[in-house]
Amino acid sequence: MSPQTRTTRRGRVRPVRYRAVQWPMVAWLSLVWWVLWGSYSLFSLLGGVVVSVAVCLVFPLPPLRMKVRVRPVALAVLVGRFLVDVVVASLQVARTTLFPPTPLHNALVAVQLRTESDIVLTAVAEMVSLVPGSVVVEAHRSSHTLFLHALDVRDQAGVERVRAQVWAQEARLVRAFGADTAPLDTGVGEAR
Q1: Which one of 15, 52, 63, 76 has the largest count of C-beta atoms within 10 Å of its C-beta?
Q2: Strand 5-7 relative to strand 13-15, pairing
Q3: Buried b / exposed e across 124-146, counting CB within 10 Å, b at 16+?
Q4: Is 110 helix (H, G, I), strand (E, B) or coil?
Q5: CA angle centred on 135, ends 129 and 136, rounded to 5°
Q6: Nearest Cα to Cα of residue 104 among 160, 154, 161
Q7: What does DSSP assign to residue 68?
Q8: pTM over cut 0.70
Q9: pLDDT tens digits for 66-113?
Q10: pLDDT digits (tens, 9 = 90+) for 116-149
């Protein structure tokens, strides 16, 4: 989602400022304020609402225009597979740490995602980074490419395995939440 722009009277191109208060954001910020303040009183909650409205007006975010359809079965598959990936990767990292191969080969892997949604890019990057043994070091929004540092990748087959894992994660995410994203070509199998 690129920011919208407008042209001023002097001919300069400026981003559009969003002045509408986004009430879900106000509710979330108020809740965070209330919890962090530690005083669960009506005065503290109202103070949080005032500060939250001010924050939303001073630092406006563009409205998210997306249709999300949560599919419970696909969401359960996404969460279950993510937990399995975390456990398996933790064991692999522990094995690599305790019994390191000599030499240890790591790789920087570029993975171009198949969807063009910034939300999907962000969610896939977060989920991939939470799995031990891989971390997203850079994300290119313009090309929807993630650059990952992956642990213990010995050859080109290992690089392709990392790509397949990211693409499979993206496919599971789109199946669980994607109503406005293009259907994915599922030519990549479920990587482990």
Answers
A1: 52
A2: antiparallel
A3: bbebbeebbbbebeebeeeebeb
A4: strand
A5: 90
A6: 154
A7: B
A8: no
A9: 677 889 999 999 999 999 999 999 999 999 989 988 888 899 999 999
A10: 888 889 999 999 999 999 999 999 988 999 999 9
